[in-house]
Write a structure and sequence with these properties.
The protein is α/β, with parallel strands linked by helices and 248 residues long. It contains 12 helices and 9 strands. Helix content is 39%, strand content 16%. This is DEAD/DEAH box helicase.
Protein backbone atom coordinates (compact mmCIF):
# COMPACT_ATOMS: atom_id res chain seq x y z
CA UNK A 1 0.00 0.00 0.00
CA UNK A 2 1.33 3.41 -0.93
CA UNK A 3 1.97 6.04 1.74
CA UNK A 4 2.32 9.71 0.88
CA UNK A 5 3.90 12.22 3.26
CA UNK A 6 1.84 15.37 3.71
CA UNK A 7 2.74 18.75 5.07
CA UNK A 8 0.73 21.26 7.06
CA UNK A 9 0.40 23.32 3.88
CA UNK A 10 -1.10 20.38 1.98
CA UNK A 11 -3.92 19.94 4.46
CA UNK A 12 -4.06 23.36 6.12
CA UNK A 13 -3.87 21.69 9.51
CA UNK A 14 -3.10 23.76 12.61
CA UNK A 15 0.60 23.89 13.37
CA UNK A 16 0.18 21.98 16.63
CA UNK A 17 -1.07 18.96 14.72
CA UNK A 18 1.68 16.89 13.15
CA UNK A 19 0.16 14.24 10.87
CA UNK A 20 2.34 11.16 10.40
CA UNK A 21 1.31 10.16 6.90
CA UNK A 22 -1.70 9.68 4.69
CA UNK A 23 -2.58 6.27 3.35
CA UNK A 24 -4.71 6.12 0.22
CA UNK A 25 -6.50 2.99 -0.92
CA UNK A 26 -5.76 1.94 -4.48
CA UNK A 27 -7.90 -0.15 -6.84
CA UNK A 28 -5.45 -3.02 -6.34
CA UNK A 29 -5.79 -3.12 -2.56
CA UNK A 30 -9.57 -3.01 -2.78
CA UNK A 31 -9.66 -5.75 -5.40
CA UNK A 32 -7.56 -8.13 -3.31
CA UNK A 33 -9.20 -7.34 0.05
CA UNK A 34 -11.33 -10.51 0.23
CA UNK A 35 -8.35 -12.71 -0.60
CA UNK A 36 -5.57 -11.14 1.46
CA UNK A 37 -7.24 -9.39 4.38
CA UNK A 38 -8.59 -11.09 7.47
CA UNK A 39 -10.09 -9.81 10.70
CA UNK A 40 -7.78 -12.27 12.46
CA UNK A 41 -4.80 -10.10 11.47
CA UNK A 42 -6.05 -6.86 13.04
CA UNK A 43 -5.42 -7.56 16.73
CA UNK A 44 -9.07 -7.77 17.80
CA UNK A 45 -10.16 -9.80 20.83
CA UNK A 46 -11.00 -13.47 20.02
CA UNK A 47 -14.63 -13.07 21.06
CA UNK A 48 -15.03 -10.26 18.51
CA UNK A 49 -13.57 -12.44 15.77
CA UNK A 50 -16.25 -15.01 16.61
CA UNK A 51 -18.91 -12.29 16.50
CA UNK A 52 -17.69 -11.12 13.08
CA UNK A 53 -17.97 -14.67 11.73
CA UNK A 54 -21.43 -15.12 13.21
CA UNK A 55 -22.55 -11.84 11.61
CA UNK A 56 -21.17 -12.87 8.22
CA UNK A 57 -18.27 -10.43 8.05
CA UNK A 58 -16.07 -12.20 5.50
CA UNK A 59 -13.17 -9.74 5.31
CA UNK A 60 -12.43 -6.20 6.53
CA UNK A 61 -13.05 -3.35 4.15
CA UNK A 62 -10.20 -1.02 3.25
CA UNK A 63 -11.08 1.55 5.93
CA UNK A 64 -11.46 -1.18 8.55
CA UNK A 65 -8.21 -2.91 7.64
CA UNK A 66 -6.20 0.32 7.79
CA UNK A 67 -7.69 2.05 10.82
CA UNK A 68 -8.46 -0.74 13.31
CA UNK A 69 -4.78 -1.51 14.11
CA UNK A 70 -4.05 2.22 14.48
CA UNK A 71 -6.95 2.65 16.92
CA UNK A 72 -5.87 -0.38 18.94
CA UNK A 73 -2.36 1.11 19.08
CA UNK A 74 -3.76 4.24 20.72
CA UNK A 75 -3.45 6.62 17.77
CA UNK A 76 -5.80 9.47 16.97
CA UNK A 77 -7.35 8.79 13.56
CA UNK A 78 -8.66 10.87 10.66
CA UNK A 79 -10.36 8.61 8.13
CA UNK A 80 -12.54 9.08 5.10
CA UNK A 81 -14.47 6.53 3.07
CA UNK A 82 -17.68 6.56 1.10
CA UNK A 83 -21.00 5.41 2.53
CA UNK A 84 -21.30 1.64 2.72
CA UNK A 85 -17.63 0.97 3.44
CA UNK A 86 -18.17 -0.01 7.08
CA UNK A 87 -16.98 3.11 8.89
CA UNK A 88 -19.11 2.34 11.96
CA UNK A 89 -17.52 -1.08 12.42
CA UNK A 90 -14.11 0.49 11.81
CA UNK A 91 -14.36 2.37 15.11
CA UNK A 92 -16.85 0.15 16.96
CA UNK A 93 -14.78 -3.05 16.71
CA UNK A 94 -11.56 -1.70 18.26
CA UNK A 95 -13.50 0.22 20.94
CA UNK A 96 -15.37 -2.95 21.93
CA UNK A 97 -12.15 -4.95 21.86
CA UNK A 98 -10.48 -2.49 24.25
CA UNK A 99 -13.60 -2.26 26.41
CA UNK A 100 -13.66 -6.02 26.97
CA UNK A 101 -10.15 -5.84 28.45
CA UNK A 102 -10.90 -3.01 30.86
CA UNK A 103 -14.59 -2.44 31.49
CA UNK A 104 -15.49 0.62 33.49
CA UNK A 105 -17.95 3.50 33.37
CA UNK A 106 -18.36 5.53 30.22
CA UNK A 107 -15.69 4.20 27.86
CA UNK A 108 -16.61 6.04 24.65
CA UNK A 109 -18.70 8.96 23.40
CA UNK A 110 -19.86 8.87 19.79
CA UNK A 111 -21.23 12.05 18.21
CA UNK A 112 -23.24 12.06 15.01
CA UNK A 113 -25.26 14.77 13.22
CA UNK A 114 -28.69 13.11 13.08
CA UNK A 115 -31.01 11.17 15.36
CA UNK A 116 -31.52 8.47 12.76
CA UNK A 117 -27.81 7.86 12.40
CA UNK A 118 -27.37 7.80 16.18
CA UNK A 119 -29.97 5.04 16.48
CA UNK A 120 -28.35 3.04 13.66
CA UNK A 121 -24.88 3.31 15.22
CA UNK A 122 -26.14 2.29 18.65
CA UNK A 123 -27.93 -0.73 17.20
CA UNK A 124 -24.77 -1.87 15.41
CA UNK A 125 -22.65 -1.41 18.53
CA UNK A 126 -25.12 -3.46 20.58
CA UNK A 127 -25.12 -6.20 17.95
CA UNK A 128 -21.32 -6.33 17.75
CA UNK A 129 -20.96 -6.18 21.54
CA UNK A 130 -23.74 -8.58 22.42
CA UNK A 131 -21.30 -11.20 23.71
CA UNK A 132 -20.08 -8.87 26.47
CA UNK A 133 -23.50 -7.33 27.16
CA UNK A 134 -22.33 -3.87 26.16
CA UNK A 135 -24.51 -1.09 27.54
CA UNK A 136 -24.91 1.51 24.78
CA UNK A 137 -27.27 4.44 25.38
CA UNK A 138 -28.65 6.98 22.92
CA UNK A 139 -28.95 10.66 23.86
CA UNK A 140 -30.95 12.43 21.15
CA UNK A 141 -33.88 14.81 20.80
CA UNK A 142 -37.38 13.53 20.23
CA UNK A 143 -37.19 10.50 22.53
CA UNK A 144 -37.43 9.95 26.27
CA UNK A 145 -33.82 10.18 27.43
CA UNK A 146 -34.35 10.44 31.17
CA UNK A 147 -33.10 6.89 31.76
CA UNK A 148 -29.94 7.49 29.73
CA UNK A 149 -29.18 10.76 31.51
CA UNK A 150 -29.93 9.28 34.92
CA UNK A 151 -27.59 6.36 34.21
CA UNK A 152 -24.80 8.84 33.50
CA UNK A 153 -25.21 10.65 36.81
CA UNK A 154 -25.26 7.66 39.18
CA UNK A 155 -22.33 7.61 41.60
CA UNK A 156 -21.10 4.19 40.49
CA UNK A 157 -19.01 3.44 37.38
CA UNK A 158 -20.35 -0.13 37.24
CA UNK A 159 -23.89 1.16 36.70
CA UNK A 160 -23.02 3.71 34.03
CA UNK A 161 -23.35 2.85 30.32
CA UNK A 162 -20.21 1.85 28.45
CA UNK A 163 -20.89 3.84 25.30
CA UNK A 164 -22.93 6.99 24.66
CA UNK A 165 -24.15 7.77 21.13
CA UNK A 166 -25.52 11.28 20.88
CA UNK A 167 -26.25 14.29 18.74
CA UNK A 168 -24.06 17.19 19.90
CA UNK A 169 -26.90 19.54 20.78
CA UNK A 170 -28.76 17.15 23.04
CA UNK A 171 -25.65 15.98 24.89
CA UNK A 172 -24.29 19.52 25.24
CA UNK A 173 -27.60 20.75 26.67
CA UNK A 174 -27.40 18.23 29.50
CA UNK A 175 -23.76 18.67 30.54
CA UNK A 176 -23.04 19.66 34.13
CA UNK A 177 -20.45 19.00 36.83
CA UNK A 178 -21.95 15.60 37.65
CA UNK A 179 -21.83 14.63 34.01
CA UNK A 180 -18.20 15.76 33.80
CA UNK A 181 -17.37 13.42 36.65
CA UNK A 182 -19.10 10.56 34.84
CA UNK A 183 -17.00 11.24 31.74
CA UNK A 184 -13.67 11.76 33.51
CA UNK A 185 -12.32 8.31 32.55
CA UNK A 186 -13.74 8.23 29.02
CA UNK A 187 -11.15 6.79 26.64
CA UNK A 188 -12.58 7.48 23.17
CA UNK A 189 -14.28 10.40 21.44
CA UNK A 190 -15.69 9.54 18.02
CA UNK A 191 -17.16 11.93 15.47
CA UNK A 192 -19.03 9.98 12.82
CA UNK A 193 -19.80 11.97 9.68
CA UNK A 194 -17.34 14.47 11.13
CA UNK A 195 -17.36 16.58 7.98
CA UNK A 196 -21.10 17.25 8.44
CA UNK A 197 -20.76 17.85 12.17
CA UNK A 198 -18.04 20.45 11.67
CA UNK A 199 -19.58 22.07 8.59
CA UNK A 200 -23.13 22.54 9.86
CA UNK A 201 -22.54 24.73 12.92
CA UNK A 202 -21.99 22.20 15.70
CA UNK A 203 -18.58 23.61 16.67
CA UNK A 204 -19.85 25.23 19.89
CA UNK A 205 -21.58 22.06 21.09
CA UNK A 206 -18.62 19.84 20.17
CA UNK A 207 -16.20 22.19 21.93
CA UNK A 208 -18.34 22.18 25.08
CA UNK A 209 -18.46 18.39 25.09
CA UNK A 210 -14.69 18.20 24.68
CA UNK A 211 -14.29 20.45 27.73
CA UNK A 212 -16.08 17.77 29.78
CA UNK A 213 -13.81 14.96 28.55
CA UNK A 214 -10.32 14.05 29.78
CA UNK A 215 -7.53 15.93 27.93
CA UNK A 216 -5.73 12.76 26.84
CA UNK A 217 -8.78 11.19 25.21
CA UNK A 218 -8.21 9.26 21.96
CA UNK A 219 -10.03 11.05 19.13
CA UNK A 220 -11.39 9.28 16.04
CA UNK A 221 -12.83 11.34 13.17
CA UNK A 222 -14.64 9.44 10.40
CA UNK A 223 -16.24 11.11 7.39
CA UNK A 224 -16.92 10.92 3.68
CA UNK A 225 -14.19 13.45 2.91
CA UNK A 226 -11.26 14.98 4.77
CA UNK A 227 -11.14 18.25 2.83
CA UNK A 228 -13.98 20.07 4.60
CA UNK A 229 -12.67 19.19 8.07
CA UNK A 230 -9.24 20.78 7.85
CA UNK A 231 -10.11 24.29 9.05
CA UNK A 232 -11.96 22.92 12.09
CA UNK A 233 -9.33 20.50 13.41
CA UNK A 234 -8.06 23.06 15.91
CA UNK A 235 -11.03 22.00 18.07
CA UNK A 236 -9.19 18.78 18.82
CA UNK A 237 -5.81 18.24 20.44
CA UNK A 238 -4.71 15.69 17.88
CA UNK A 239 -1.20 14.33 18.27
CA UNK A 240 0.51 12.71 15.31
CA UNK A 241 -2.79 11.35 13.93
CA UNK A 242 -2.99 8.39 11.59
CA UNK A 243 -4.69 9.57 8.39
CA UNK A 244 -6.46 7.27 5.96
CA UNK A 245 -8.31 8.31 2.81
CA UNK A 246 -10.31 5.97 0.60
CA UNK A 247 -11.98 7.77 -2.31
CA UNK A 248 -12.48 4.71 -4.48
Amino acid sequence: MDEFKISEKDYNIDSEITPRSITRATPTTIKTAVIERRFDDLGLAPWLLDSCKELGFEAPTSVQYNTIPAILSGDDVLASAKTGQGKTAAFALPILSALSENRYGVFAVVLTPTRELAVQIAEQIRTLGNAINVDCRVVIAGVAIEDALQSLTVDNDDKRPHIIVATPGRLSDNLNDTMKQALQHCRFLVLDEADHLLAYGFEFEVKRIIEHLPPKIQTLLFSSTLTTMNKKLELFQLKNPYIFEDNQ
